[in-house]
Design goal:
Layout: E1 4-5, H1 15-23, H2 46-60, E2 66-71, H3 74-86, E3 97-102, H4 105-117, E4 119-125, E5 147-150, E6 152-153, E7 158-159, E8 171-174, E9 191-195, E10 206-211, H5 228-233, H6 243-258, H7 261-282, E11 286-287, E12 299-304, H8 309-325, E13 328-329, E14 340-343, H9 350-365
Helix pairs in contact: 1-6, 2-6, 3-4, 7-9
Bound molecules: pyridoxal-5'-phosphate.
Length: 367
């Protein structure tokens, strides 16, 4: 029996994709080989990576003057690659200014890496209220090399409802947990990046979408594997790319296209999230700790109303156990935040959200 998997990542994938991948695991596209066995430079693999890129460009509306790269190292390596490629000077003197907005754990980590190679300035932060809102976006410095934001904050469950105006400074967006969850205007950004394991496929592949003019700015000392210019010149094949991950991403994108693309995904995701948020508004025992205008469609944390810490801990652990027994798994909040969190990525059907709400209504009555 398949469960409803509310994990923040790696997370649930469309069942149709898993079935197709399973059916052709030993013989893909009539080649007599698994994708895992193919040379990445062979005529058999070429259509697989091309299909993933074509579909991604089509579904996201990526303009022609942007490159799509399939890299490794997770979104976390982009925290370093962005400053190294867009703003680094001499290896021992971080003098170029860059802008960051501190909206939670991932944003903070990005800024920490940025501060190793640049003069990273935190332009705004929502730390004062446990990151429960997106702060008003200040303008970047006129000479900043880029302006970094985390578009959807996976851990706390906030999202930028409106993108900040970065002027002529390239906006850099971490879209790890919201890529293709709804339409996004790629042209507003200089660079977008996402680990695949939240909304697009298995862990191990990182997608980078970068405007042409931002490629080729890395100083000579930056290692080859960390350079956008080399990965772009080599078509993501400077070394062996994560072939199987790219193949699965292609299948997920095909599934998304057949189910109406980003627009339709956005409608479905809004409907799912509104269902859960409106239940939380009415619930006598659970609530959302996130300010309304900043709420994420993808990651929805919720907390039990219970002032007695011991009673709350006991109720939380019983909730997680009983939910898992009912086929609703991975509902614990992030280890640094606590409480609960339901991640409703593209592959989570509305039936999963309804099942969760029904379970929560029943659980409330036992308190
Ligand atoms: C998960 C996540 C990351 C880290 O991704 P890795 O691929 O594990 O490095 C970074 N940013 C955001 C917004 C995330 O959700």
């Amino acid at each position: 029996m398949r469960v409803y998997n509310f994990s923040a990542g790696p997370s649930q994938l469309p069942e149709a994709v898993l079935e197709k991948a399973g059916a052709e695991i030993a013989d893909t596209n009539g080649t007599g080989q698994s994708v895992m066995e193919m040379s990445h430079r062979s005529k058999d693999f070429k259509p697989i990576i091309e299909k993933a890129e074509v579909l991604l460009r089509e579904l996201m509306g990526v303009p022609a003057n942007y490159r799509v790269l399939f890299l490794q190292g997770g979104a976390s390596l982009q925290f370093s690659m962005i400053p190294l490629n867009l703003a680094a000077g001499k290896s021992d003197s971080p003098e170029t200014a860059t802008s960051y907005v501190d909206t939670g754990i991932w944003a903070k980590k990005a800024a920490e890496e940025g501060s190793k190679y640049t003069r990273a300035v935190i332009r705004a932060s929502s730390k004062d209220k446990a990151y429960s809102y997106i702060p008003a976006a200040p303008a970047p410095g006129a000479d900043d090399a880029y302006y970094h934001i985390t578009v959807n904050n996976t851990v706390v469950g906030t999202a930028w409802a409106e993108l900040p105006d970065a002027g002529t400074v390239p906006l850099v967006g971490d879209i790890s947990s919201c890529i293709l969850s709804q339409p996004l205007d790629v042209a507003r950004f200089g660079v977008l990046y996402a680990g695949a394991q939240k909304n697009l496929g298995p862990a191990g592949t990182t997608i980078v979408i970068i405007r042409d003019d931002l490629i080729g700015r890395a100083p000579a000392w930056v290692p080859a594997m960390l350079r956008y210019d080399i990965h772009a010149e080599e078509g993501s094949m400077y070394n062996t790319p994560p072939c199987y991950g790219i193949y699965i991403i292609g299948l997920v994108l095909e599934w998304l296209k057949n189910s109406g693309g980003a627009q339709a995904a956005g409608r479905r995701n809004r409907e799912k999230a509104e269902l859960l948020y409106s239940y939380l508004e009415k619930s006598p025992r659970f609530f959302s700790p996130i300010e309304k205008p900043s709420r994420s469609l993808m990651n929805i944390p919720f907390v039990l109303r219970e002032n007695d810490a011991d009673k709350r801990a006991a109720a939380e652990s019983r909730f997680l156990k009983e939910a898992a027994a009912a086929g609703l798994v991975n509902l614990a909040g992030h280890r640094l935040v606590g409480g609960f969190r339901a991640s409703l990525y593209n592959a989570m059907p509305i039936e999963g959200v309804k099942a969760l709400i029904t379970f929560m209504e029943g659980f409330e009555k036992t308190l």
